[in-house]
Amino acid sequence: MADIDTLADRLKKIIPNLENNLSSQLGEITITVSAADIISVCQSLRDSEELQFDTLIDICGVDYSTYGQDEWSTQTASSTGFSRAVGQEDGPESPSDAFPSRFAVVYHLLSVSKNHRLRIRVFALDDDWPRVPSVISVWTSANWYEREAFDLLGIMFDGHTDLRRLMTDYGFIGHPFRKDFPLSGKVEMRYDPDTKRVIYQPVTITPRVLVPRVIRDDHRYSADDVPSDQKDSESNA
Amino acid sequence: MLEILLILLKIVLIVVPLIIAVAYLTFMERKIIGYMQVRIGPNRVGPKGLLQPFADTLKLLLKEVIIPTNANRYLFLIAPILSLAPAIAAWAVIPFGMMEATETSPAKPLALTNIDASLLYILALTSIGVYGVLIAGWASNSKYAFLGAMRSAAQIVSYEIAMGFALVGVLMAAQSINLAEIVNQQSGGIWQWYWLPLLPLFIIYLVSGVAETNRAPFDVAEGESEIVAGFHVEYSGVAFAVFFLAEYANIILISMLTALMFLGGWLSPFESIPVVQDWFTWVPGMAWLLAKTCFIMFCFLWFRATFPRYRYDQIMRLGWKVFIPITIIWILVVGVAIVMKLPPWFDAA
Amino acid sequence: MPELRNMTLNFGPQHPAAHGVLRLVLEMEGETILRADPHVGLLHRGTEKLAESKPYNQSIGYMDRLDYVSMMSNEHGYVLAIEKLLGVEVPERGQYIRVMFDEITRILNHLLWLGAHALDVGAMTMFLYCFREREDLMDCYEAVSGARLHATYYRPGGVARDLPDEMPQYEKSQFRSDKDLERLNANRNGSLLDFIEDFTRRFPGYVDEYETLLTDNRIWKQRTVGIGVVTPERALQMGFTGPMLRGSGIAWDLRKKQPYEVYHKLDFDIPVGVEGDSYDRYLVRIEEMRQSNSIVKQCIDWLRENKGPINIVNHKFSPPKREDMKHDMETLIHHFKLFTEGYCLPEGEAYAAIEHPKGEFGVYLISDGANKPYRLKIRAPGFAHLAGFDEMIRGHMLSDVVAIIGTQDIVFGEIDR
Predict the structure, then answer these.
(1) Could you identify which of B14, B81, B159, B272 might form a hypothetical disulfide with B211, taking C-beta atoms 3.0 to 4.6 angstroms apart as the criterion?
(2) In the prediction, which pLDDT does A231 show?
(3) CATH no. for residue A36?
């Protein structure tokens, strides 16, 4: 596998203004690109003689709205027990402001000929109507990945010719992988003996927390095995 | 009156063993293919599973015949009958052996009717069988059934030609189109049977027979993994059972015809071998015929367990571009051989 | 004259060759396919969303249920991603066990693929032959994890437990004669390693049997040669990986190119196709089975020689011994915390990929420092393959649909997730 520093240098040569938008962690390089540039960046990544990212391995939509939020307060002593976790029914308190916008699209690229990988993150600027240009013209495999991201997170891909739902049911409403979509869904299906057909109805399951979400900031899990360079990246990530 | 009763009795004597044979052919198929596939096959109903065919029949008889809403009711129900009738009617002319000449009558074949054009009769009836398949596929009003019927029709019509040509070779060699006569012409030992002088035709007839009966590797008409069950995808219960019966009756028919026309019918394979032939004189001719038929049926099952399925267009290619030219060439060869009176096969006539 | 329309055929989701719940809408002109539109998602269970609501360890079981014919490989991708974020190193014996089971899984997967592919093309005997061998490998799964399919055997930091010293045996029953019993238990008298070794000795002969039935079979060749040809350029464009890519002539295998675990210490070859058609992919996978067999052999030899830990001893991530819990309070707390709250991963993101039997299986994990993943994305190889289905099938015939579904080695658990 090619050295990541040389890869970073090559990337900086090809893509302008990358200094602040390139980070490397755990031997993986992530670059952040603005939505407007994504097609031209991908094009040059694919066609560049030195990089040759010939394969688009994956496209992953991310909803950053509850990033860093936990359900169980660990900083202060509490007398309320488990209800600390299950009491919150009003969902996420406030959108996380660590990121420029709620939705991001993460591309994983692989160069089969040069044997290196790259991750590109693109933030979709409008939170209500997230839009990112489609890279289907660069890699054919983007087709279904973008359909999936559209289906599950509601990210619109400009220039995609066939942006239909892929995973969810025909006539499904909503985007299930958004953080404000309940785990048990919104509707359930059952056979109705009176009308003698299958009907949809609002879910009857009450959502519940089995294991609360906890963020431990006291480094109790940065075990001895964790190399020191990773602890650093942890704090400035 | 007595004559009609006698004929009816003969029909029953043919049809009832035939249906039982079909039942046990399915059982044999499941057992043999089972052993070929390192499994046991049915062994629960009755001793060694021997009553399994009856359990299956009973199950199919008791099941509801579902007629799809959009199907053509009349044609849907008539199709299985159209498919079964020719498969059984063809048995009318099959000779099962020769009756010894008595004082009152000369030696005559053991058959329901001994007509001179029996080979033509068989060809005609096996061709009619395709209508059942076609009508079933069309009447079901289902796309899979329709595709199955389409494939089946094309396939049967194509292989009918190769099969017919193969039979032309036989009738040329035997100088007769009477089945019993064809068998008698083959007498004189295993090397006199027509499989040897007509080897290409024998193989083509056998393969075309597999194709005619829609068996693997030519089972595109019901290709399970492609068009689910093809023309009979919408059939259930008795209607399905009738198709099933027709298919297996056809297998037995083709096997028996192969035995009659190429493997010397009821003639003993040890004929004209000194000493050995005397050991087997006690074996009735019919036993030889049945043994040969069973061998061919075994081949049918063997093919099914071994070969992948052909694609529809490849079957057409094989039929039209390979089989028909070969049969035509071999008919010419046989014709020349007859004219030259080539020993040891064609010097008798 | 009425207007002529092409026939649209609804292929699946209940279809014997749809490999689960594939629904294909085929636009056909006679038997020729003009366009195919796969409708997927009928098995979508939202694994990625479910994982977001559970501590890391509790999602390992979900991974088995992704590609349910190569269970342990899926787990491997997932635990590798966790390990990458945690920065832990797996003990060498644990790595060898993982590699051995990865290769057993590869054989399992390819056997099912071969059986199903041959059955689709009409050679049904292959299916049962393949399942005969799968049975032995399933027994290995069962011996080591207690489950024949959904093993949940890999853990972050190693594997759940060491290889058992004895193989479970068949027991006497009224349906089994003494002779049968002796035959069935003949290779089960030693340890699991003995059993697997016995299998690796027999297996090449079995593969020869398969090849006798198929490789030179004219019908098999007619059905696969020239069917679903993918050029190397298109294969890369469509994101193909694994045998689908190697069948097109690109020697790309993560086990060689980006080695993980102990693959760099093992000796094996990467088979590559030439034409990029179904027949080449068939040959590639057959050869992969032989190679996997030799890798398993090498692992057995190493595992016999070297004892040692199979999991990291840090009880923040791996459960403590039960006997220690009886007298040590600290250990009891560790156990309780691990199985209730789990452990938190450092903030960050990681992508870990393995050479899954079907291609590149990747897990992209975003952690915000909590005990549950913030976002988990599974990169399933079959997803990209099925996305390329339309391009592969155009101009072929209906019978080739099943041949191409077969050659793609589609399993819906991973495509729909």
Answers:
(1) B159
(2) 41
(3) 3.30.460.80
For chain C, what's the residue count? Answer: 417
> Per the CB < 8 Å rule, is C398 touching B38?
no
d(CA A143, nearest CA chain C) in Å: 8
User: Which whole number is the average pLDDT over A62-89?
Assistant: 72
pLDDT tens profile B78-115: 888 888 888 888 888 888 877 776 777 777 777 777 78
Which one of A1, A216, A237 has the shortest CB-CB distance to C344?
A216
CB < 8 Å to B153, chain C: none
Residues 6+ apart with CB under 8 A from B312: B151, B154, B155, B220, C31, C397, C398, C399
Cα–Cα separations (whole angstroms), residue C49 to A63, A213, C21, C106: 12, 14, 21, 27
Predicted confidence at residue A83, as pLDDT, reads 66
Chains touching C, CB cut-off 8 Å, 3+ pairs: A, B
Judge whether C364 and A58 are in contact, CB under 8 Å: yes
Max Cα-Cα span within chain C? 90
Q: Does residue A168 fall inside a structural domain? A: yes
> How far apart, in whole angstroms, are the C-alpha atoms of residue B149 and residue B170?
31
| Interface predicted TM-score (ipTM) of this complex, two decimals | 0.86
Q: Is residue A188 part of a domain?
A: no
Task: Please report whether residue A106 resides in a domain.
Answer: yes
CA–CA dist B84, B243 (Å, integer): 7
Instruction: Report how far residue A199's alpha carbon sits from residue C153's, in angstroms, rounded to the nearest whole number.
Output: 40
pLDDT at C202 over 60: yes
CB C258 to CB A115 under 8 A? Answer: yes
Which residues have a Cβ under 8 Å from the Cβ of A32 and sit 6 or more positions away? Answer: A21, A22, A120, A121, A122, A123
CA atoms within 13 A of residue B61's CA, in its CB half-sphere: 6
Residue C161 burial by Cβ neighbours in a 10 Å radius (0-12, 13-18, 19+): middle
- Distance between CA atoms of residues B239 and B53, nearest Å: 17
Task: Provide CB contacts within 8 A for C318, sequence distance 6+.
Answer: C155, C156, C157, C158, C311, C312, C338
Q: What is the pTM of this model?
A: 0.88
* Burial (0-12, 13-18, 19+ Cβ within 10 Å), A180: exposed
Tokens of A220: 């109790």
The DSSP secondary-structure symbol of B212 reads H
Tell me what the mean pLDDT of segment C248-267 comes to. Answer: 89
Does any CB of chain B come closer than 8 Å to the CB of residue C371?
no
Domain membership flag for residue A84: no
Instruction: Indicate the burial class of A79 (C-beta count within 10 angstroms; 0-12, 13-18, 19 or more).
Output: exposed
* A29 phi/psi in degrees, rounded to 5: -100, 130
Neighbours of B (≥3 Cβ pairs closer than 8 A)?
Answer: C
Q: Which one, of C261, C335, C416, lies nearest residue C57 by Cα?
A: C335
Strand (E) or helix (H) holding A192: strand A187-192
Q: Which two tokens stand for residue C204?
A: 């090449």
Mean pLDDT check: name the lowest of A191-205, C5-19, C336-350.
C5-19
Per-residue confidence (pLDDT) for residue A226, from 0 to 100: 45
Q: Is C368 helix (H, G, I), strand (E, B) or coil?
A: coil
Tokens 């329901």, located at residue = B112
Q: Give residue A116's domain range.
A: 4-64+99-181
CA distance C246 to C241: 8
**C45: CB partners within 8 A, 6+ apart:** C65, C416, C417
Residue in B1, C381, C370, B157 with CA at minimum distance from that of residue A74: C370
| Reported confidence tier of residue C203, pLDDT bands at 50, 70, 90 | very high
Q: How many domains does chain A have?
A: 1
With an 8 Å Cβ cutoff, is A183 touching chain C?
yes
- Residue showing tokens 């080739």: C400
| Whole-number pLDDT of residue A94 | 57
C371 touching chain A per CB within 8 A:
yes
Q: How far is the C-alpha of A168 from the C-alpha of C46, rounded, in Å?
A: 10
